[in-house]
Write a structure and sequence with these properties.
Blueprint (H helix, E strand, L loop, with lengths): L6 H10 L4 H19 L2 E4 L1 H14 L10 E5 L14 H4 L10 H8 L3 E6 L19 E2 L2 E5 L5 H8 L5 E6 L5 H7 L2 E4 L19 E6 L2 H11 L29 E5 L9 H16 L3 E5 L7 H16 L18 H12 L2 H14 L5 H21 L5 E5 L15 H5 L6 H6 L3 E8 L5 E7 L5 H14 L10
Helix pairs in contact: 2-3, 6-7, 8-16, 10-12, 10-13
């Protein structure tokens, strides 16, 4: 099956002209049409335009860049000119918002000849940890359709794991790339905040949002990151630092690498299969020549609470633009302007978006700003300092991605606190602005994937990619495929 190839494998065939970009694109389209009715991963299909792009790539016949002619999917918050983009929210879906411009990321991919197949499902405005808050309904896990694919980049993760595309784009605010790839058994990277441009990507929490790739292997992640990373004049949060040649870092050699194992990430209530898989992964690192160092990140216990003050506060600000005048659905016969605003937002937004707007507005209101938002920012600094101290002793840090494998669809629907706790191992890195990735490291007794998180220093994606690649090459977990 052509769509099961990695980017590297597909590129080699394209260069030798043993396969065409059109054939790769058709293979992905056929795979989507065959299995996506069981997953609900792809919510907008851009097939006609994708085939036109593929034919143009084949006509030129030049495959110098590893992404030329490679089909991909983008999360439904990436703007592409002429392609519907709704953030899986009725506030935009009912008016079918079609951007007149490209995000920096999709523009850079288009420039090297990558082919966009369409948009993937996400939690509404990326608010969720299961893709269940989407107005299009939940995405199902390819390994067990009764389970969630994770969130908010659940559609992208399911799409990669099920071979609907060669890679996908996601966003990670509180673990929204790392958690779903852990649940679906593929690979995903949250780069350092400022490494990749957020221009043209719909915001949830602007000081936390980071965009990144999801793929089948670490080498493929390195290829995509190389294409999308770098300073962007359209995004003032991007930083003008050198972008390394990431594939050069994938030597397979981690002899002498210092690997931290934080005690705060092995908590009571963690599924035994998860703890076993992560500790086995640590042993594998030792066998590859790394040194395991027990470390402490003492403020980890405050990370989730801190995140759920800062994130909703920024949500409250960012969602204000969807008022039915600048953006969003419209309504007829309002009694007055206030009635218009209330109806647009109450009818257009889902429950989770409303909840975060209310929490954030409260935290920012007069009399509560100092008690909540300012205090959360102080704790954020303490969490960042924990990592700075830890990285004086170690080169990378290992942890579980999630305390359990993928949960059943609907399990946390009536318990938002339980849903928020899905981010328990994933919020600290966001608050500190450091890079982190997830790579498959095992399966539970129910044959559900388990992910290993690898964290690194700011701007040092190369080291965590090197560590993950060495582990990946020494194991077979990434080669297992769901039966669809």
């Amino acid at each position: 099956m052509l769509s099961s190839l990695t980017i590297t494998e597909a590129h080699e065939r394209l260069k030798k002209h043993t396969v065409s970009a059109e054939e790769l694109t058709k293979a992905c389209i056929e795979r989507i049409e065959k299995v996506d009715h069981r997953l609900n991963a792809v919510i907008h299909r851009n097939f006609e335009r994708a085939l036109e792009q593929a034919k143009e790539v084949d006509r030129k016949g030049e495959f110098d860049h590893p992404l030329t002619g490679i089909p991909y999917l983008a999360k439904d918050v990436y703007c592409e000119a002429g392609v519907p983009t709704t953030a899986c929210s009725n506030v935009l879906r009912e008016k079918t918002y079609i951007p007149p411009f490209d995000s920096t990321t999709t523009r850079r991919l288009k420039a090297v000849g990558a082919i966009s197949l369409g948009k993937t499902n996400t939690d509404e405005f990326t608010m969720g940890a299961s893709t269940e808050t989407s107005c299009y309904g939940p995405t199902r896990n390819p390994w067990d359709s009764s389970r969630v694919a994770g969130g908010s980049s659940g559609g992208s993760a399911a799409g990669v794991a099920a071979d609907l595309c060669f890679f996908a784009l996601g966003t990670d605010t509180g673990g929204s790339i790392r958690q779903p790839v852990g649940f679906c058994s593929c690979v995903g990277l949250r780069p350092t905040y400022g490494r990749t441009s957020r221009f043209g990507v719909m915001s949830m929490a602007s000081s936390l949002d980071t965009i990144g790739p999801l793929a089948k292997t670490i080498e493929d992640i390195a290829i995509v990151l190389q294409a999308i990373a770098g300073k962007d004049d359209r995004d003032a949060t991007t930083v003008d630092v050198p972008v390394p040649y990431y594939r050069k870092a994938l030597t397979g050699d981690i002899d002498g690498l210092r690997v931290g194992l934080p005690k705060e990430y092995f908590i009571e209530g963690m599924a035994p299969d998860v703890e076993r898989s992560v500790r086995d992964a640590a042993k594998q690192f030792e066998e590859l020549g790394a040194t395991i160092v027990d470390i402490s990140l003492p403020h980890t216990k405050y990370a989730t609470a801190t995140y759920y003050i800062i994130c909703p506060s920024e949500v409250s600000s960012n969602m204000a633009r969807y008022d039915g005048i600048r953006y969003g659905r419209t309504i007829g016969k309002p009694q007055n302007l206030l009635d218009y605003y209330e109806r647009v937002r109450s009818e257009g937004f889902g429950v989770e978006v409303k909840r975060r707007i209310m929490i954030g507005t409260y935290a920012l209101s007069a009399g509560y700003f100092d008690a909540y938002y300012r205090q959360a920012q102080k704790v954020r600094t303490l969490i960042r300092r924990d990592f700075e101290a830890a990285f004086e002793e170690v080169d990378v840090i290992l942890s579980p991605v999630s305390p359990t494998p993928a949960f059943v669809v609907g399990a946390h629907t009536d318990d938002p606190i339980a849903m928020y706790l899905e981010d328990i191992f994933l919020s600290s890195q966001v608050l500190a602005g450091i890079p982190a990735l997830s790579v498959p490291c095992g399966f539970s007794k129910e044959n559900l994937p388990i992910g290993l998180q690898i964290m690194g220093k700011q701007w040092d994606e190369a080291t965590i990619l090197r560590a993950a690649h060495a582990y990946e090459q020494a194991t077979q977990w990434h080669r297992k495929k769901p039966m669809l």
